[in-house]
Amino acid sequence: MEYVLDTNIVIKLLRKNSPLQTKFEKAVMNDDEFYVPLVVHYEMLCGFYYEPAQVQEEKYLDLYNNICFHFKERDINAQTWKDAAKIYADLRRKGFKVSNSDILIAAFCIEYNFTLITENTKDFKNIDGLKFINWVE
Question: Which of the listed residues 58, 70, 94, 122 has the most CB atoms within 10 Å of its CB?
């Protein structure tokens, strides 16, 4: 399988959420592939640099780098941006508000036919064509 980890899942992995950690490790052992759009890296780095304690920042940065070892990077290309804008417009017309970051993550997953692993199913359930699962349930 090919997966994308949402930011909330990466945070839970950093906090060593046992059931989630077990699923992640099993998927890695099964040679499943994990991709991360750069917008997730951005969200993670925002959180690290916001942390007031330098020690905490370094601790989580080290853990994050260990998790990232299993990620394959792909940037968001021009088509993804265009698709994200269409998703945004569709959601707004339907009366839903979703963060731009989540829309970009969804467009990335749809473009490459990846399955998003997220706990934030509320925001993603209204996006047509997006495959997602919740490993935290």
Answer: 70
For position 129, which CATH number holds? Answer: 3.40.50.1010
Number of separate domains in the chain: 1
Cα→Cα distances 59→30, 41, 43, 82, Å: 28, 16, 17, 37
User: Does this model's pTM top 0.85?
Assistant: yes
Q: What residues have CB less than 8 Å from 25, skipping those under 6 apart?
A: none
Separation CA 38–CA 94 (nearest Å) = 28
pLDDT tens readout for residues 36-58 = 888 998 888 888 777 655 546 56
